[in-house]
Design brief:
Helix content: 55-70%
Radius of gyration: 25 Å
Shape: elongated
Distance between the termini: 68 Å
């Protein structure tokens, strides 16, 4: 069985390759009137999250960063799925049967859907599916190998204060060092 430290670099490499591959058609769609900013911003989120994941799980590992990376991966998997659905439907801009094209995507003059680069739209949809699968794989690996990932994380005394023991006291007795005001 492979360990997390053997699998994780390949997963981050796959995410990086899919992000770079997705960035090229995303830049082509940047001039799109309706969703150009969305796709470029999503690519920048992918890049930032990959860098943050690498440093969070290799250099500055803590339970906080583990939770942040797990939560961020969950959110990005859903955003990637949403992007895949949107761009996959939007890529069908030649046909007016597409739900998105019928309802919201019209050219500024109201004549029909804007279809400036259908191949780039299909590529963004396809790479968004692959990114969604990569994030689902990352979530699964992080949950499956949780004990292995967090094995090196030490709880420090400053992180948690000890809880005082109550087993040696009688009911109603004050803790050691406290004086009762009633006489």
């Amino acid at each position: 069985m492979w360990s997390f430290k053997e699998i994780f670099p390949f997963l981050l490499l796959a995410q990086g390759l899919f992000t770079i591959s997705n960035l090229i058609p995303a830049l082509m769609l940047g001039s799109n009137t309706y969703a150009g900013f969305n796709v470029i911003f999503l690519e920048l989120l992918y890049v930032g999250f990959i860098v943050g994941t690498y440093y969070g799980l290799t250099k500055y590992l803590s339970r906080f960063y583990y939770g942040m990376i797990l939560g961020g991966s969950s959110v990005l998997s859903l955003i990637s799925l949403q992007s895949a659905i949107f761009w996959g439907d939007y890529a069908d801009c030649v046909h007016s049967s597409s739900y998105i094209n019928k309802i919201i995507i019209l050219q500024p003059n109201g004549t029909g859907p804007e279809c400036n680069n259908q191949a780039a739209m299909q590529a963004v949809g396809a790479f968004s599916v692959l990114m969604c699968l990569c994030y689902i794989a990352q979530i699964s690996l992080m949950l499956y190998h949780k004990n292995e990932i967090l094995a090196d994380v030490q709880l420090t005394a400053s992180s948690y204060r000890p809880i005082p023991s109550t087993t040696n006291r009688n009911i109603g007795e004050l803790p050691h060092g406290h004086v009762s005001k009633s006489m």
